[in-house]
Amino acid sequence: MNLFIDQMINGISVGSVYALVALGYTMVYGIVKLINFAHGDIIMVSSYFLMVFLRKAGLPFPLAILLSVALSGALGAIVEKLAYKPLRGAPRINVLITAIGVSILLQNVFAWVFKQDNPASMPALLDGAINIGGVSISKISVLTILVSVILMVTLSLLIKYTKMGKAMRAVSEDSGAAALMGINVDTTVSATFIIGSALAAVAGVLFASTYRLINPFMGSDFGLKAFIAAVLGGIGIIPGAMIGGFIMGVVESLAKGYVSTIFADTIVFTILIVILIFKPSGLLGKNIKEKV
Amino acid sequence: MLLEVNDIGITFGGLRAVMGFNMGVDKDEIVGLIGPNGAGKTTVFNLLTGVYTPTEGKIIFDQKDITGKKTNVINNLGIARTFQNIRLFKSMSVIDNVKVAYNQNMKYNELQGVFKFGLYKKEEAELHEKALNLLDVFGLKGEAEENAGNLPYGKQRKLEIARALGTGPKLLLLDEPAAGMNPSETAELMEIIRLVKDKFRVSILLIEHDMSLVMNICERLYVLDYGSLIASGPPEEIKNNQDVISAYLGE
Amino acid sequence: MAFYKKQFGLISAAVILILLVLFRYLGIIDDYYITIIDLVFINIILAVSLNLTIGFLGQLALGNAGFMAIGAYTSAILTTYLKLPPILLFPVAVLCSGVLAVLSSLIVGIPSLRLKGDYLAIITLGFGEIIKNIITGLKITGGARGYKGIMNYNTDFETNAYVNMIVLYLFAGLTVFVISNFTKSRHGRVIKSIRDNEIASEASGVNIMYYKLLGFSMSAFFAGVAGSLYAHHNGILAANKFDFNYSIEMVIMVVLGGMGNIKGSIAAAIFLTFLPQLLSSFSDKRMLFYSILLIIVMLVKNKNYPFLKIDFYKKRLLGR
Predict the structure, then answer these.
(1) B173 & B156 share domain
(2) Cross-chain residue pair B51–A286, CB shorter than 8 Å
C-alpha cells in the first residue's frame, strides 16, 4: 500500500511536469499545426541555464529561475522566427525535418559546450519532506504540483479572457480569417511560442530541482512522453494536455513500481498506439475533418 | 435517375450546414447548383463524394446506396469531382496527373510493376496513349511532360477536369470551374463542358457563380440558401423566382 | 551501343561489383577499407529504402534503425538456432528479417497512417527507442551485453560459402533496382500523388491507406534486410547501435541526396559513410554538423533565405 501511495504521488508530480510541457506542444500544434520536436529540448536548455546562473554566476534562486525561464521563452520565439516562419506554406515534411534538426542542434550544442560537466548536478532548491497523515511527501514534489496547477489555471484564464488569448484561438481556428479581422498573426504565433517555451522552461526548472542531475539529451525522452500526453488528452485542446499529462505520469510511475523500469516506456508507448487506434482525437477531442 | 438525394443533412457541432436537401440528376443532364456564398453548396459536394458523412438522409447513385461510403469507393462507383481551390499533383508531370486517375482500372500487380513483366508493358503503353488522347481533348498534349504546378491557372483548371474524367465517371461534379476566368476563357470553358458531356457520356452537376454560364448550359438548377433548397427548375423559371432574387439581393 | 546507353546504370553497377569482388580476393584493398565499403552498401540499402517513405510518400519516419535492429537480431537468432542446409540458411534468415520488419511496420503504420497529420514521425521515433529497450531487456537477444558469435562474412566463409559479402552487394543492387522501378510503376505514381495532395488522390479513386502502408512497409522490409546483412557483416550486435542517431543519419542521407532522388541517396550514403571514417575529428561532432545541414537544406529548398544560395552571390559579385 505504501508503495502504491508513493508511486501515485510521484506520478502526479511527474505528471504535472508532463502537463506543463504538453501544453506547449498542444498550443503550438493548435496554432501552426506543427509537432515542434525542439519543444522537449527547452526543458534541457532551461535546466542548463539554471545550473549556470546558480553555480557559475552564483545568483540567488529566484533570480536564476526568472532569468532561465525568460531566456528559454525567448529562445522558443527565436527558433520560430529563424527556422519555422520562413517555411510557412512549405510541405509539412520540410518543416518537420527542420524541427528535428533544431532539436538535435540544441542537444549537441549543449553537449559540446558543457562537455566537462556532463551530466551536471544541480544545487538543491528545497530539501526535506512534509508529513501528511503518516505519508511523507518531499517538499519539492509539493512545490512542483502547486506551481504546475497554478500555471495551468492562469493559462486557461489567459486564453479565455485576454485579448491575446482570443487572438490565439482565432488564429488556430482559421489564420486567414483572423488576419482579415485585423489580428496580427505573426505576433500571435510568437506569443504562443514564448508562452509554450516558458512553460516548458518552468517544467525544466522543477524537473532539474527534483532529480538534481541534468544532461543534454534528457529533453527528447521527456518531450516524447509529454507529446504522448498531449495526444492522449486531444491535441490542440488545452485541458486535454493537462489531463493527459497527469494520466501519463501516474501510469508511468505505477508501471515503474510494479512492472519494470525498462518496460515502463513500452507500456507508455503502447498507450499511444491504443489511443490512435480507438480514439485518435484524444480523450477530449472531437473528430474534425480537414476543410476541402 | 442517376443520382437521387433524399433529405440529406449534416450538422457541424450544432450548426446545421445542410438540411432536408433533395435533388436528382438524370443521365446526360447538366444540372447547376447555385446560391449565395456560404449557402452550403460545397458541403453538398463533400456529402456526395464521401468527404463528409451525412447525419441524416440517403444518397442513391446508379441504383446503389452510397451514403457514408468512402471517398475513393464513391469515385470507383462513378462520381468524380474537381475542387474550388484547385488540387493538382503539383510536382508531378501533367500526364502523370491523368495517369493516376486511370490507376483504378489497371490490373498489373506490384511484382509485375517492379520487374516489368506480364501485363506491365501492354497496360503502360495503352495508358500512355489513353492519357495523351485525353490531354489532347483539353489542348494540353503539348504540355504533357511539364510540371502540373507550372501550368497557367486556366490550364490547371482544365487539367483537373481531365483528371476527373480519367477515373471514368458517370457523374462529374465541377466546383466553380469558371472561378478566376475572364469572359473569353469562360466561353471556352462552356464549349469544353458541352463537349465533355457528349464525348464522355457523363452527367454534370456544377456549382457556379457566373450566371451567364449557368443560364447558358444548365438544363435545370437547384438553388440553395442557408443549407436549404429554396427553388429548383429550368433556368428561365429560376431567373424570375421571387425567393431566389431576394436570397441573392437580401431582404 | 543503344543497349549500352539504355542500361548504363545496370552495366556500370555490374562492373563496379565485379571489380570490388576481384580486388577483394586479390587483396588489393585492405581490410579496413573493405569494412567501410561493406558499410557503404548497407547504408545505400537504408537510404534508398527510407527515401521511398520520405521522398516519395512524403511521410517522415524516424525509426528505421528500429526496423534494422529487428532484422539484425532476427537473422542473428535464426542462423544460430535454425538447422537448415547451408544453401538455404542464409537466404531464409535474410527473408525472415525483412518479413518481421514488415509485420512490425504494420503495427506502427496502421494506427498512424490512417490519420491526417504527422503522427508517423512521432510514433516511429518512439518505436525505435522501444525496440532498443526491448532488445536490451530480453534474454534471447543477449540483453545489454550484446549478441556475439554471429555467422559472418570473414570467419564463416569456409563452413558456409553462401554467407558472403557478394550477397550484400547483390542485395544493395536489388534494393536500388526494385525501388527505382517501383516508383516508376503505377503504384509508385499513386504514392507520389498522395504526397502531393492526399485529398485529390482519394477523390481520384485511390485507396490511400493501402498505398501508404505499401510504401512504408516496403521501406521497412529493406531496412530489415539491411539489418540482417549488417549482423553478418559485423559478427556481433549491440542494441545501442540502433539508436535515434542512426535513424537520423539515414534521414540525413535522404535529405542531402534530395527527397525523391534515388541516385542522390546513393551518393549521399557513400559520402556520409566515408566522411566520419576518414576524419576522426569529424566523427564526434557529426550530429552537430548533421543537424545544421538538415536545417540549411530545408531553408534553402524553400528559397526564403536568398543569402544561402549561390545565385545570390553570383548576381551581386558578377553583376546580373
Answers:
(1) no
(2) no
